[in-house]
Amino acid sequence: MSAENTEFIVDQGQKDQGDASRGKLSQAIDVLQTTTGEHTQEERVAIAQRALAISAECVEAWLLLARDDSEGDEDTRKYLQEAVNAGDRLFADKKQEWIGKFWQVPQTRPYMQARSSLGQVLWELEQYDEAITVLQETLQLNLGDHQGIRYILLKALLDTSRYEDAASMVDIYDQEQTVLMLYGKLLTAYMLQGDSLMARSAFLAARKYNPFVLDYLLHLRMMPQKLPKQSETGQESEAIRYCAAFGDTWDNAEGAIGYLRAQKKLRQDKEARKMR
After folding, report:
1. Whole-structure pTM over 0.70, yes or no?
2. Alpha-carbon dihedral sign for residues 57, 63, 68, 71
3. Side-chain half-sphere CA neighbours of 97 within 13 A
4. What are phi and psi of 161, to 5 degrees?
5. pLDDT tens digits, residue range 22-65?
6. How far apart are CA 92 and CA 108, in angstroms?
7. Which residues pair with 142 in a beta bridge?
8. What's the chain's Rg over C-alpha atoms?
9. d(CA 154, CA 78)
10. How far apart are CA 226 and CA 69, in angstroms?
11. Per residue in 207-238, pLDDT tens?
12. What domains are there in the chain, each with its CATH number?
């Protein structure tokens, strides 16, 4: 048998296997789509299991089990890991082509949702290194970040004192003017460079965007018992919600609160002198 004929036979066999696998996945998704709001939890779980018996690459079925068949975070983790593994297999051939823009391909979205959820449940299980790795990999797959992974990852990196990694991520989204990124840039600048030109510049930018954050971080204003349901850009409601999420991050960053206090006083004194 010639080398060309051998190559054809192997390639065709692999193609046929791939086609068969995709066919089974379509069947599994069809089974899963029979679930409705009228089904009980037990019925939904049974349908998901039937789908997986047809194709273990049915990411949506693993997600359903993570939601409906978990008795705790560890069960949820296992199902989400299976969902991610299934997606890894399913999109292995396209990863290099789609990297950086996964979310733009609709069929990848359940996989991306599984990755996001896995990172968060790993964090809840105090598996911090694993959680950060999953979130970083997920962000690399979709730098447009339609899921807000960068905000979850920013919190994780700052809480584990990974300031260089946090600074690198903030730099990627340097043009983003949000309270999370501006105050994140300020904290990383101070923790990496101390009272530097970059830290002072970041302080001014963050204060200009939302000055109320400083008052809440410095405990000059009391946090309400109930968080506002919505936050308005640059307003007190946004500051409250930010500090509810990141207040402990600032408190645990050595010297950071003291730096904010010193910079606030410095700016107040400077502004007072101008008014004389």
Report:
1. yes
2. positive
3. 6
4. 60, 30
5. 689 999 989 888 877 778 889 999 999 999 999 999 999 999 99
6. 12
7. 101
8. 24
9. 25
10. 32
11. 999 999 999 999 999 999 999 999 999 999 99
12. 25-147 (1.25.40.10), 175-276 (no CATH)
